[in-house]
Amino acid sequence: QVQLVESGGGLVQPGGSLRLSCAASGRIFSINAMGWYRQAPGERRELVAIAFSDSSTNYADSVKGRFTISRVNDKNTVYLQMNGLIPEDTAVYYCNAIIKRDSWGPPYNYWGQGTQVTVSS
Fold this sequence. Notes:
The structure is a single chain. By secondary structure, the chain is mostly beta strands. The chain has strands at 2-7, 10-12, 18-26, 30-39, 46-52, 57-59, 67-72, 77-82, 91-100, 107-111, 115-119. Strands 2, 4, 5, 6, 9, 10 and 11 form a 7-stranded mixed β-sheet that branches. Strands 1-3-8-7 form a 4-stranded antiparallel β-sheet, with no helix packed on it. The termini are far apart.
């Protein structure tokens, strides 16, 4: 009923930039928050950045000053601009959204399929 489709991952050299995109589609009444998580091999999935419906944002300490999250509400889309990439940023990046499908029901948590980001020379 709801899908999150990600794009924009790839291989980049240290110091480079990438921009991830995630578009939500389907039965959507409202989106409480959209964000990005990442998971490196052998590690737990961690929050990278999140943007709430009130326009507030939150970032992991490790990406502050390098990454920027932005939302286009009328397109149900979220972007993650990643600058100054370092090898430690290598991971699978997952889009996440907290979505209400109707006005009376609870919000649900949705995940994208993940996109690989590799930072290497």
